[in-house]
Design a protein that fits this description.
The chain is of the alpha+beta class and 141 residues long. 21% of the residues lie in helices and 35% in strands. The protein is built from two helices and nine strands; from the N terminus they run βββαβββαβββ. Strands 4-5-6-7-8-9 form a six-stranded mixed sheet, with helices on both faces. The chain has a three-stranded antiparallel sheet with strand order 1-2-3, covered by helices on one side. The longest helix has 15 residues, at 31-45. The N and C termini lie far apart (33 Å).
Length: 141
């Protein structure tokens, strides 16, 4: 797999599987999953986000279509604190990706949203129905 611009860690890989930090099981290793596991490591070990409040592939319904968000981090009141969309390193983070994230957030109503392809990462804070891009990821509170 490709070297990412995310912190390295003791990642467990065997054949075509990677051990998931949250689900505590082996999952199929795709380029997107590679980014997701590295991003989870960043949130857990560098920003102190609680593992117990993370959800992966949470189902949401948008215009009668069922979708799944990559990473959601709950706040201490069971609302969504951070919504993260992970893409493979080969995927360009263009307006289509940002629109997808925005559509998901219409359902989930997260305070913060982020997107990463492992090489580039962007995060926004939603205030008064507008998204303001942040320079760094918010600390969990």
């Amino acid at each position: 797999m490709e070297l990412l611009k995310l912190p390295e860690f003791n990642i467990r890989v065997k054949d075509t599987e990677i051990f998931c930090l949250i689900r505590k099981k082996w999952v199929f290793l795709t380029p997107e999953e590679w980014v997701r596991q590295h991003f989870l490591n960043l949130l857990i070990h560098y920003f102190d986000y609680p593992k117990g409040l993370m959800r992966l592939e949470q189902t949401l319904v948008y215009f009668k279509n069922s979708k799944r968000s990559d990473i959601t981090v709950l706040n201490r009141h069971a609302g969504i604190f951070l919504l993260v969309e992970c893409k493979a390193p080969s995927v360009v983070l263009d307006h289509k990706v940002v629109n997808q994230l925005s559509e998901y957030n219409k359902v989930l109503a997260s305070k913060y949203v982020a997107v990463s392809n492992g090489l580039k990462h962007f995060v926004w804070e939603k205030k008064d129905n507008e998204y303001m891009q942040l320079e760094e990821f918010p600390r969990y509170y």
